[in-house]
Amino acid sequence: MPSPFRADHVGSLLRPPELLQARDDFAANHISADQLREAEDAAILKVLEMQREAGIDVFTDGEYRRGIWYGDLADSIEGLVPDTSPSVPVGVGWQGRGADLAREAMVEIGQTGLVVGGRLRQRRRLAEHESSFLRQHAPGPWKMTIPGVVQRAVAWYKPGVTDKVYPTRAEMYDELAGMVKEEIRALVAEGASYIQLDSLFYVITLTSPQRRLALVEAGLSPDEVLEDNIRIDNSCLDVARAGGATVGLHMCRGNNRSAWATEGSYEVSAERAFSSLHVDRFLLEYDTNRAGGFEPLRFVPKGTMVVLGLISSKEPALESQDVLMRRIDEAAKYVPIENLAISPQCGFASTVRGNLLTWDEQRRKLELVAETARRVWG
Questions:
Q1: CATH no. for residue 260?
Q2: What percentage of the chain's residues is helix, strand, coil (to nearest 5)?
Q3: Which residue among 12, 67, 187, 217 is least packed, with the fewest CB closer than 10 Å?
Q4: Is the pTM value of this prediction over 0.90?
């Protein structure tokens, strides 16, 4: 039976200053790849201890070896090429106090403006360089976060370029999904307790009129892309479930330097997504009114857990535990309280520079997650 993991978190954590400096030094050719790896190892040991002390139920490496949460997918394959004649991108600008920093982060990371221009081949496994250290040093159950295929690849397919090697989007999606499924099989065999798919399309695109319009202008039906997303995500999730791992899927509205990308209720996709996705648990953003109310949870199947992302990873102010308790009670009108858990609404550092909090503010947030979980569920 999957673990309830009552005190959960989404995965990415703030990098300590010494790791950020090591990344800068590596980019400037001042240190070697081995020296960067040593700095990452030391930082991961530090953040594992912080999670243990905070009382979190499941451990990650903070995504410390990534530049952005979905980086492993693009970094592990060949066949992506720069888009020499980009159209208007599917998406809108960042919002909130960190919006300018968020745009700068995307330029720094350099994973925009790519399309599939050749047959996709793997250069390496997606996450072996992460899992090998984590499984050796995690002080308890550990999870690996994996980016959803369609979330990334919907923008990688360009007619006139990609269709020369993949006549249809579905063929390209299936090729990528095959790589993700093999990675999940390997992770489960290595002892991963928990596989989390980060698949934001269900809200980040469907709640945004501008993003939906961009899909239509690209000749795509939002409803058909939704069905593609469900099909591909399920094909990956089923592999993890077959291996006995706890299987989660995270949805949010964007997270980069304390900025967000869109707003709106889960209602737009809840009936199809919640009722169709093969998960043990959904990890859902619920820290502000940008996510709407709990009413869409009525579509969550009986027995499926909902991890309520009630605590902000974007803002430093510490939430009131009494307010958190009341919100858990509100959610329990739609999902039985024994099928609920709590977490921050997203990672603390979906991009390498992280959100606008300090290390200690992050730690207090995680402690609040654990303390609230113990108070509610024992």
A1: 3.20.20.210
A2: 45, 15, 40
A3: 217
A4: yes
Residue 10 covered by a domain: no
Residue 232 corresponds to which tokens in the numbers above? 């591909």
SS3 of 257, please? coil
25's tokens:
């030094």
Express each pLDDT in 3-34 by its tens digit.
799 999 999 999 999 999 999 999 999 999 99
286: containing domain: 17-377
Residue written as tokens 């093969």?
A: 278
- How far is Cα 364 from Cα 366, in angstroms, rounded to an integer? 5
CB contact at 8 A, 105 and 71: no
Could you give the CA distance from residue 78 to residue 121 in angstroms, rounded to a whole number? 5
Residue 8 lies in a domain: no
- The answer to whether position 12 is within a domain reads no
Dihedral pair phi/psi, residue 63, rounded to 5°: 60, 35
Distance CA 324, CA 96 (A): 23
Handedness of CA 169, 170, 171, 174 (dihedral sign): positive
For 55-81, where are the alpha helices, taking DSSP H only? Answer: 71-75
pLDDT in tens, 143-169: 999 999 998 888 899 999 999 999 999
Q: What's the whole-number mean pLDDT along residues 307-315?
A: 98
Q: Do strands 77-82 and 114-122 pair parallel, antiparallel, or not at all (unpaired)?
A: antiparallel
Strand 114-122 relative to strand 143-147, pairing? unpaired
The residue written with tokens 């993991």 in the block is 5
| 58: helix, strand or coil | coil
The answer to whether residue 175 sits within a structural domain is yes
Looking at the structure of the chain, the number of domains it has is 1
* 63, 69 contact by CB (below 8 A): yes
